[in-house]
Amino acid sequence: MDVIRLLNMAFFGFHGVHEEEHRLGQRFEVDLELFLDLSAAGNTDDPARTVDYSLVYELVEEIVIEREYRLLEGLAEEIAGKILERFPVEMVTVRVRKPNAPVRGILDAVEVEITRS
């Protein structure tokens, strides 16, 4: 199976368990892997035979910016579900990162990864 990847998309959103996270907001990063057969697109060089990843980006941006979730898991599920509904992909992997997670400790980010089909 072939893959289209959108990596390190970054958005400012209002997701988290704590009140301050919903009030102040913070940066969220999203990676996507879209699994589908790209042979027709590759053989014909026809944009209509693939996924318009600018539209995928806009969908993810809308979900992250305009909605609020308590859990990264909920945000990831919403993204995966909408992609499967709107685009001709067989499977999607979504990774959502919170670089500034409220964790007492030193780390680069907290990340949730889900794969749905």
Explain what the structure shows.
With about 120 residues, the chain is an alpha+beta fold. Helix 3 packs antiparallel against helix 4 (about 70-85). Strands 1-2-3-4 form a four-stranded antiparallel β-sheet. The model has no long low-confidence stretch (mean pLDDT about 95). Helix content is about 35%, strand content about 30%. It has one domain (about 1-115): GTP cyclohydrolase I, C-terminal domain/NADPH-dependent 7-cyano-7-deazaguanine reductase, N-terminal domain (GTP Cyclohydrolase I, domain 2, 2-Layer Sandwich). It contains four helices and four strands.
- Total helices: the number is 4
How many structural domains are formed by the residues? 1
User: CATH homologous superfamily name?
Assistant: GTP cyclohydrolase I, C-terminal domain/NADPH-dependent 7-cyano-7-deazaguanine reductase, N-terminal domain
What is the global morphology?
elongated
Main sheet makeup: 4 strands, antiparallel
**How large a portion of the residues is in β-strands, by DSSP E?**
25-35%
Distance between the termini: 13 Å
CATH class value:
Alpha Beta
Radius of gyration, Cα only, in angstroms?
Answer: 15 Å
Question: Helices and strands, in N-to-C order?
Answer: EHEHHHEE
With strands numbered from the N-terminus, the spatial order across the biggest sheet is: 1-2-3-4
Fraction in helix: 25-40%
CATH topology title? GTP Cyclohydrolase I, domain 2
Classify the secondary structure makeup into a structural class.
alpha+beta
